[in-house]
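Handoff note, outgoing to incoming analyst
You'll be picking up this chain. Sequence as last confirmed:
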Amino acid sequence: MKRLAFLVGTAVIGLSTLTACGGSSNASSSAPQSTPSSSAPAASGAAKLSTATVGNFGKVVVDGAGRTLYVYDVDTANPSKSNCNGACATAWPPLLAGTGTPQVSGVSASLVGTVTRSDGTKQITLAGWPLYYYANDAKAGDATGQAVGGTWWVVGANGQKITTQASSSTPSGNSGY
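Most recent structure output, in case you need it:
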């Protein structure tokens, strides 16, 4: 019974993610900013960025705990602007800047910056692109958000999205959509 409840809950989250951030022209929300999902680490201290080999994507940008970070096609890099708010930010919590200068390893510090979100918080950017977690990634090394809605992508150390599709051995955030 618990397994069925887990599967139903997972399906509901997946469908709400697709609805909230599926790449439609309505992906930007004017709804009040909701609190990011508890699956995103709290923004205390300085944010940390490094790289790790994840699935068949090669080296991608991760946070200090090894959690995969993503960019969103609906955002802009020049000027930096986050367009994932409200329900979208619940499914795709932003990497918040925290306090102090971000710590980097394997990523050029000159590419790292911040953007002020609609709720006034500061979000980390890489090459101008705001960075996000995916709420359905359960642990370090997961990249189940890759290509969700055709608009979410893991990101390389150069700040460019990686559009490689997940291999059959890597979980895909698109299954069932």
